[in-house]
Amino acid sequence: STTGYVRIAEPLQNVVVQEGQRAKFVCKIDVHDLDLQRLKVLWKINGRFFRAEPSRNRRLIFKQDRGWHTLIVRKTRVHDAGIYSCIASVGLDTDKSSAHLKIESAPDPPNNVKLVSCHGNSAALSWNPGEENGNKVIEFQVQFNTSDNPDVWHDFEERFDQKSRMVTLELYPGLTYSFRVKARNVLGSSKPSIPADRKCTTPPDRPDRNPRNVRTNTGVKGTLVIEWTPMSRLHFHGPRFRYHVHWRPHGSYKWSHRYVDDPAQGFLDVDTGDVYQVYDLQVKAENSMGEAHHPAYIYLGHSGESEPLVAPGNFSLNPEKSLEPHTAHFIWDPVDLDPKLICGKFKGYKVNTLITVMSVYPLLGLLPADNSSPIKVALSDLPAYVSLQAQVAVLNSHYTGPYSKLLEFFTPEGLPSPVQDLRRQAYGVAYVLLKWRPPEQPNGVIQGYDIAYQQVFGLSLGQIRPLMPHINDPSTLGARITGLRPEHRYRFIVWARTRKGRGEANFVDIVTAKGTRKCTIRASSNIKVDPENIRMSHYKVTPKGTPPHTPRIQVAELGNSSLNVTWMADQASRDVKYQVEYRESGQPMWHNTEYVFDKSWLTLNKNQVPVKDLEVRLVASNRLGEYVFDKSWLTLNKNQVPVKDLEVRLVASNRLGDTATSRTIALAKSPQNTGYVKSHIPDNHGYQSAGSSQNDAAAQNKGRSFKSTSWTNQAGTMIGALLVLSCYSLVFQQ
Length: 734
Fold this sequence. Notes:
- The chain is an all-beta fold.
- It has two helices and 56 strands.
- Residues 356-366, 519-531, 542-553, 555-565, 569-575, 606-611, 622-645 and 653-734 have low confidence and may be disordered.
- Residues 109-205, 207-306, 418-516, 547-644 form the Fibronectin type-III domain.
- Keywords: Disulfide bond, Membrane, Repeat, Transmembrane, Transmembrane helix.
């Protein structure tokens, strides 16, 4: 059929947008479902058809959703304004709807700008307005430049209303002008017009003013430094512009003078050789036509200052005020403010504090120029618990006078700043290992640290609960907290403590690991249990440069298949993890097993060490905290260490890189193949590394009986030792 039914159910709506915004027209079409395949929708813009071809016209977007047809104009421009039409047809039946698009923007620039006349110091200018672009012009702005700086355009102070088409402009003398015009509406200013067709040159004249802000700079000794603000080119009014500078001692009738030919220069230095004397000053502007029309003002100034000659007397601590950890109260007699003694303008006093036998402490500031008798001031932000020296001196504008006698005093103890670098070193299902560094500002003698915790429930914090015992050793910089709930958030708070009390707190939030608690650790004498069964033990840091004690080791055979090795750790050490490392003899890279935390023995499978010549060592390293263990021995299967002659030593090292190595023993396979026998190797055996070559002494001592051998260290305890800082490497080699 050639007929059908189609209607535009909602006509297009007029659209008003600002330039650069998006405009959208929506055409709602009603059509029978049977005619959907025959429906055709076309768009017209100002009578011209546009089809949906996005690749050719990306600013026009056509969308269709059943009966809704949309045309979007992106980033509208002024020339997009006009009549937009939606035409829908099914066969011979057609419907159409149209609407206006109005684009508002800043006006077009004025055109046809002409210089109508140029006489004396005035000019007449005319122009025609450009398109308003949807909003009426509010005003016109005339701009000008001059021939000696044509790239810089200046605005005339006067603005002209929208009805203006011709104006008269007042100009500065001695310049050649060009003109242009801009229009402005509520959306902004237009681009500048093309400059007027002619230029206007005004006749020269004397300057209409003298330099302003005439003053002296007293920062140069023995010199009168006269300064002023250089004048704008618009005020030169003629060629050969310069400044004529006059000066004389105040009270004198005789002027001295000098010319400054550079119009951009704003100073003149005059050698006088005196100190802070009063002078009369005058700076005039002149050009080839003569001096400025208006007489120059006479100003007062001073020659350069010098160091004051007087020092405050009777400088001491104020007996009426107590000395505080960070504040000291001072008192002194004022100085005579005679400018001849101050050698300048009195500005106040300056107090310097110096840490005894150290560099200058940061300047604590200028004090008010209050010259009452006596002068009392308080200085804050001093370091606490430190020996200080203080002095006071008088100030003028540029120099500091001689200091008073040196005052020595000692600030009392205060509260420490927060601990530094508080962090979670390790954590598990039911424990966390905390570590920190001492406060940056101890402000006294650190007595120890206090620790507390809070449970965290979303954005809420539970009650602060202290952990016991308090840490009363300042070298203890870590703690292990156990008995925590799995997968739970806690906040741990640490305070440093002096004899004055706790300082500012630092805290860290942690979440324990997922899982379930397997057992409860036995509590030792230094572990306290809080009501929630949360325990804390301490971690003491070994000072840097302190190597571990030389370890005591015992090596004994256990039948034909095993070798038993026992050793003793530093008594102060705790909480170790174990790892066996092995490598083929002569190779640089070590292979290793996984760390073991909860047992004191390890087994190597033959598949792990498929080599004939093998070097093996046991490494024990700390995890920062406390862990109580029952076993202190390690068993290795000799069949998994298939070497004939074995050398053994134990190397102890701490986290700082300090090491201590035990004496070396040599083990030789017995002729009956029932175990190992021992041969002694001197202390100067000459090991280069854990994998050094075997000494011939081992072969020479084959066949001797062997039960066990041992070294002792200074700790004196064998079983049940605790490890923290030191790690021990048991080294075997063929």
